[in-house]
Amino acid sequence: MMPDDLPVEEAGAPKRPRGRPRKTVDERDDGNRRHELLGAAAQLFRRKGFAATTTRDIAAAAGMQSGSPFYHFKSKDALLFAVMEQGMHAALARQQAAFGVPGYATLPPAEQLRALVHAHFAVLLGPGNDFVPVMLYEWRSLNVRQRKVLAKLIADYEALWMPVLTALHASGQLKAPVGLARLLMLGALNWSVQWFDARKGASIEELGNAAVSLFLKES
User: Fold this and answer.
1) What is the pLDDT of residues 167-194, one digit of tens each?
2) How far apart are CA 120 and CA 94, in angstroms?
3) For residue range 95-106, what is the model confidence (pLDDT) as tens digits?
4) Which of 47, 74, 41 is CA-nearest to residue 60?
5) How far apart, in Å, are the Cα atoms of 84 and each of 24, 37, 162, 180, 211?
6) CA distance 61 to 39
7) Residue 45 near residue 53, CB atoms below 8 Å
8) Are 101 and 115 in contact (CB under 8 A)?
9) In angstroms, how far is CA 210 from the centroid of its own chain?
10) By CB distance 3.0 to 4.6 Å, which of 62, 117, 138, 184 could disulfide with 208?
């Protein structure tokens, strides 16, 4: 249904062309604009919270008109889910890339864990990576279907750690049961988004080395 206050075309006025209307600038640049929206939304959701952030805020941060986000996403809730989903896909890609580094397969398990920890910290604390804090703060804002999709991605991500942790446990360098160790490690690493400040001197690499030294028994 159309609003009643829209003007009616006058008789004799040129007819509008049939078919799909001409795309706006935002629509023609769909991929880039979607990416900008996700980045702007992630920053605002992290800084202000999901409930306090409006679509007008997000559009302004992305340099768009206030209604433009609804071309790309049906609702603010859909945008929140997209932030988390894209973030998890990016995290999976980064973690899988760590396995593809030349020589990784021949590294001792402790060094493989170090590589995974460093890659994980890059996901958590690298520039433009706001999705993990948003997941920590806003998980309850998702519906059941969205949580199931993300839970599968999280499980796929965490499964990448299991072979390394299993090898470390077999060698005696990891005392805790493998499943429990995975939960404790990732929980501790994830919480770094709450307190890490690069301005205080520690680099991500130094942070990763310190974490590994805490997790593993010295050989």
Assistant:
1) 999 999 998 999 999 999 999 999 898 8
2) 8
3) 888 888 888 889
4) 41
5) 27, 13, 23, 25, 25
6) 9
7) yes
8) yes
9) 24
10) 117
Cα 50 to chain center, whole Å? 15
11 pLDDT band, cuts 50/70/90, is: very low
State residue 172's pLDDT score: 93
Q: Is the pLDDT of residue 12 over 80?
A: no
What are the C-alpha distances in Å from 46 to residues 69, 129, 199? Answer: 18, 10, 19
In this predicted structure, what is the pLDDT of residue 163? 94
Residue 26 and residue 68 in contact, taking contact as beta carbons nearer than 8 Å: yes
Separation of alpha carbons 207 and 179, rounded Å: 23
Chain centre distance of CA 170:
33
Give the Cα-Cα-Cα angle 173, 179, 183 (nearest 5 degrees): 95
For domain 75-215, say whether CATH 1.10.357.10 is its number: yes
Estimate to the nearest angstrom the gap between the alpha carbon of 209 and the chain centroid.
24
Phi-psi category of 135—alpha, beta or left, where left has phi over 0 and alpha has psi -120 to 50? alpha
pLDDT for the residue 29: 52
160 Cβ contact list (under 8 Å, min separation 6): 92, 95, 96, 99, 116
CATH architecture of structural domain 24-73: Orthogonal Bundle (1.10)
